[in-house]
Design a protein that fits this description.
The complex is a heterotrimer of chains A (328), B (285) and C (254). Chain A is built from 16 helices and two strands. With 328 residues, chain A is mainly alpha-helical. Chain A has one domain. A two-stranded antiparallel sheet of chain A has the order 1-2. In chain A, a hairpin with a 2-residue loop joins strand 1 and strand 2. Chain B has one domain: Orthogonal Bundle (ABC transporter involved in vitamin B12 uptake, BtuC), CATH 1.10.3470. Helices cover 74% and strands 3% of the residues of chain B. The longest helix of chain B has 31 residues. The two termini of chain B are 34 Å apart. In chain C, helix 3 crosses helix 4, helix 3 runs parallel beside helix 5 and helix 5 packs parallel to helix 6. The chains are: A mainly alpha (328), B mainly alpha (285), C alpha/beta (254). At the A-B interface, helix 5, helix 12, helix 14, helix 15 and helix 16 of A face helix 4, helix 6, helix 9 and helix 11 of B.
Chain lengths: 328, 285, 254
């Protein structure tokens, strides 16, 4: 798809999104909000995975930090912007702290740590009754009005809230587009392609990974912060590792090497889940099977971008040497 | 003081489950270079199978445990041969994603096949009773667990140090191509190692049946703890896995006593501290 | 002549094996030093210690007067010490031009810029294009580096090292896997880069043609330390060196 076609497509998509509430049912609007939230989460995840080569199974942890922080802010100070910004900031700080402990390690170890830390946040959400409400979670969270420059915009309907989410999502995705095409993005891709070479051309690999991890956490946190005003409740399952699988799968489905991949994947995943969940409660079963099938099916080259992963994978190295290198 | 010692002993026996799972995880990683996210699910399968055989069908406990180990070892062989083998030599992200998908699949499959939580069947007659230690009754079953754990430790040492198979495995682990050049059938080594690791996890699960509820979430809890133990003990290090299991088991036990609400978080905090102070693990060389 | 690099008493052990065992080395500006020795002599380990890929157990390294013994590799690059690798380490999915842009932008401190597009960095692009020209890779500029033929990747690898504008560049068997024609071309390239860009080179090599054609000083390593050093002619006639190389004769051309 050449540049011009891409721009027309993006413009068309934007127009469709803007017009959506006018033409679609409330339920569809609600569903699209969830698509946008997952898209944010996945786009952040892909900065880490597709761009930097780090696989994280802990995005749900930062999503939850964003959600719970926003919820607590809104319960004390019912104004949307502080809630969302506070949630995003909290998630970014959490990612910075946990990331600094994790990025110095090899990629396998790193993946393990992200899962462990994600579950740590889950266990906090589950046990810390005083702050998180424990397994009951937090309820009665208001869909607080948007207060900006003296203007107060109430958001009584899902449709109105949809526009807030849309604006946030468009801005965030546009920002990510900038980042990906910036020198920082190029540096991250260099780190992904060859960590050793990157180190030897003057790139501080550890710091770059931490930046990517923090940004990914911030995006997950932003998505999470936009959840409480929509649902009016926040409960621990959003922090569980099974929730971490969603941005991962969305990105795999849509394509790791294309910027729009996570966006497409988010759409496919939310819609598919909506359909499948009507027939069976065993969504994880399907999710897991699809992940396994995708990974094994990479040979055929699914969704365009996956060929690139195969290209890298086809440089066969003895795993013992790689494991030795990885274990350094 | 006595409370302290007694609680430590309780922790010691619960550490044995952790040790069995961590041992399997460590062996698989050390030889195949695969971090098996689904290892906790194998523990869970072992528990479900153990419960089905012993609690539902009425098979004698020992046979039920062995049966569970055998079935899960076969499952492990299937996973290694069918799912993981195509991924050797590729970017590690593939195997991480695959085993992660496998967890989602297996954990939900268990829910589908067996439903929810189960009653705990009675402890087999020959393992009932208790011993008085530090002024309290200490279940004989716990001593049994510790005995099993120690035997496994000794057994593994003997296996890797004294047998031909063990030497073949260590050769493959350190230099795959050289081992193959020497005539060692590396695919067979890989399968057998994965089966051993799976069987160990199943052993842990089956042994937990008479004393702990069998539920879908136990696999997830186990793998997270196994990961923490790996951080503390060092990746691919059996001795470290053992020491780490003891540490986490005993500390968790004290955690339940002192910070009942934050017991799990306490262990995570220790993991974070180790990462800060000695990132390669307390027992890494 | 300014002394660029001083390494004293370097030791590095892997288990029981002392790969580098008391290495002393000094490199002056403008030199082209060839580091040779039989397999297992410790040449690559030596380069790894000098570039920061490994940390020594003992000894120290001084670069332009500063102790860099424990500095991480990226910090050494910013001080003017770069290297190329023997095993292919171009950035396979980046284009050839991007492969050169990365070190150039890193050198300018631009890697932190997350908001301006890479295209906006015109000077960097021009520099990358100019270097591509020197490397003879102008046509391959847009191709993913991993898809280039081996010879081109070797040239690109050299280019990446030089793009950091180092004062001292360590090359680890830059011509490995190349046919004689390609090898000659690569060596001309090194010569050109040394002359035009004022880069001092330390080259680890097996091919004696390359060594004698390129270097003005040869350092012979064996068993982790320096066996002999001097001008190429002296080394060629050195008996100890010849004995060490018995069995490695296939690389020595007459």
């Amino acid at each position: 798809m050449n540049d011009l076609a891409r721009r027309w497509a993006a413009a068309g998509l934007l127009l469709a999104l803007v017009l959506l509430p006018a033409v679609a049912s409330r339920y569809v609007t609600y569903l699209v909000i969830h698509i946008l939230l997952l898209a944010l989460n996945a786009v952040g995840f892909n900065l880490l995975f597709g761009q930097t080569g780090l696989l994280s199974f802990g995005q749900a942890g930062f999503y939850a930090v964003g959600a719970y922080t926003c919820a607590r802010i809104l319960l004390a100070w019912p104004s949307l912007l502080p809630g969302v910004l506070g949630g995003t900031a909290a998630a970014a700080v959490a990612a910075l702290l946990l990331g600094s402990l994790s990025v110095r390690h090899t990629r396998i170890y790193f993946a393990m740590l992200t899962l462990a830390f994600g579950m740590m946040i889950f266990s906090l959400a589950w046990k810390w009754r005083a702050v998180t409400g424990g397994d009951d979670g937090l309820v009665g969270i208001p869909r607080a009005p948007l207060e900006l420059f003296g203007l107060v915009v109430a958001l009584p309907t899902v449709e109105r809230y949809y526009y807030v989410v849309l604006v946030a999502a468009v801005l965030a995705v546009a920002l990510m587009h900038r980042v990906v095409h910036s020198p920082l993005g190029l540096a991250l891709r260099a780190v992904r392609d060859s960590e050793v070479r990157a180190e030897h051309v003057g790139l501080n690999v550890r710091r770059l990974r931490l930046v990517a991890f923090t940004v990914a956490g911030a995006y997950a946190g932003l998505a999470g912060s936009l959840l409480p005003p929509l649902e009016n409740t926040v409960t621990p399952p959003i922090a569980h590792w099974t929730a971490s699988a969603e941005p991962v799968l969305a990105t795999l489905l849509g394509g790791i090497r294309h910027f729009a991949g996570p966006l497409v994947g988010a759409f496919v995943l939310v819609v598919a889940k909506d359909v499948i969940v009507r027939f069976t409660v065993h969504w994880s079963l399907v999710l897991g099977a699809v992940v396994v099938a995708l990974v094994l099916g990479f040979r055929g080259g699914l969704a365009g971008a996956l060929e690139a992963l195969t290209l890298r994978g086809s440089r066969v190295r003895p795993v013992s040497a790689a494991a030795g290198e990885e274990a350094r | 003081m006595e409370v302290f010692a007694y609680q430590g002993l309780i922790g010691l026996s619960s550490a044995m489950y952790l040790w069995l799972v961590s041992a399997g995880l460590t062996i698989i990683f050390g030889v195949l270079g695969v971090l098996n996210f689904a290892h906790g699910s194998l523990f869970m399968l072992g528990a479900y199978l153990g419960y089905t055989l012993y609690g539902l069908v009425g098979v004698p406990f020992g046979l039920a445990v062995l049966g569970s180990m055998a079935v899960v070892a076969l499952v492990g062989a299937g996973v290694e041969r069918g799912l993981l083998r195509p991924l050797y030599g590729l970017d590690p992200s593939y195997q991480l994603l695959l085993t992660f998908g496998l967890v989602l699949f297996l954990d939900d499959l268990a829910k589908l096949v067996w439903g929810g939580v189960f009653r705990i069947p009675p402890i087999p007659g020959w393992l009932q009773g208790s011993v008085t230690l530090f002024g309290r009754p200490y279940p004989f079953y716990n001593l049994f667990l510790i005995a099993v754990g120690l035997s496994v430790g000794v057994g593994l040492w003997w296996l890797f140090d004294r047998t031909w198979w063990g030497r073949a495995v260590r050769a493959t682990a350190s230099d795959r191509e050289m081992a193959a050049a020497l005539g060692i059938r590396t695919p067979t080594v890989f399968s057998s190692v994965f089966m051993l690791g799976s069987a160990l996890a199943a052993l842990g699960g089956a042994l937990s049946t008479p004393v702990r509820p069998v539920a879908p979430g136990i696999g997830a809890a186990m793998i997270v703890q196994a990961f923490i133990i790996t951080v503390i003990g060092g990746l691919g290090n059996l001795r470290g896995a053992f020491a780490g299991s003891l540490l986490v088991g005993v500390l968790s036990s004290y955690g339940t006593l002192w910070f009942p609400e934050f017991e799990l978080f306490f262990i995570f905090a220790i993991m974070a501290a180790v990462l800060l102070v000695r990132p390669q693990g307390l027992f890494a060389r | 002549m300014t002394v660029l690099l001083v390494a004293r008493g370097l030791r590095k052990r892997f288990g029981d094996l002392a790969a580098v065992d008391g290495l002393d080395l000094q490199v002056e500006e403008g030199e082209c030093v060839a580091l040779i020795g039989p397999n297992g002599a410790g040449k690559t380990t030596a380069l790894n210690l000098l570039s920061g890929h490994l940390l020594p157990d003992e000894g120290h390294i001084t670069f332009r007067g500063e102790d860099i013994t424990r500095l991480p590799p990226h910090a050494r690059v910013h001080r003017g010490l770069a290297r190329s690798f023997q095993v292919m380490t171009v950035f396979p999915e980046l284009t050839a031009r991007e492969n050169l842009l990365v070190p150039i932008l890193a050198r300018q401190g631009a890697a932190r810029d997350a908001l301006r597009p890479v295209r906006a960095y015109r000077e960097a692009e021009e520099e990358a294009n100019s270097l591509l020209g020197d490397l003879g890779l102008r046509e391959a500029a847009e191709a993913p580096a991993g898809s280039l033929p081996h010879g081109d990747q070797r040239r690109l690898e050299l280019g990446i090292a030089v793009a950091s504008r180092p004062r001292l560049c360590l090359l680890d068997e830059p011509s490995s896997g190349l046919n004689p024609l390609e090898r000659a071309g690569l060596m001309q390239l090194v010569r050109r880069l040394a002359d035009h860009r004022g880069v001092t080179f330390v080259v680890v090599e097996h091919d004696m043609d390359v060594v004698f054609g390129l270097a003005n000083r040869v350092v012979v390593m064996n068993r982790g330390r320096v066996l002999a050093e001097g001008p190429p002619e002296d080394i060629r006639n050195n008996r100890e060196v010849r004995e060490t190389y018995l069995g490695e004769e296939e690389d020595v051309s007459c």
